[in-house]
Design brief:
Elements: H1 3-22, H2 24-36, H3 39-60
Amino acid sequence: MHPDLWAALCLMVLFEGLLLFAAPEAWKRVMLQALRQPPLRLRTIGGLLVIVGLVGLYLLRGGR
């Protein structure tokens, strides 16, 4: 696997851990709200986040 992918995964784990460490009660509230959402809404949000992430990576990597 490419080293940049490993670095990205490590950063993701780091940020998730920071959220749980710094604000566990807020994290629980967000998860409870997510459980109440219909699957289509969660898929839509997830798809939008994927697109934003891909565009961000493209721009950071020198895309035009």
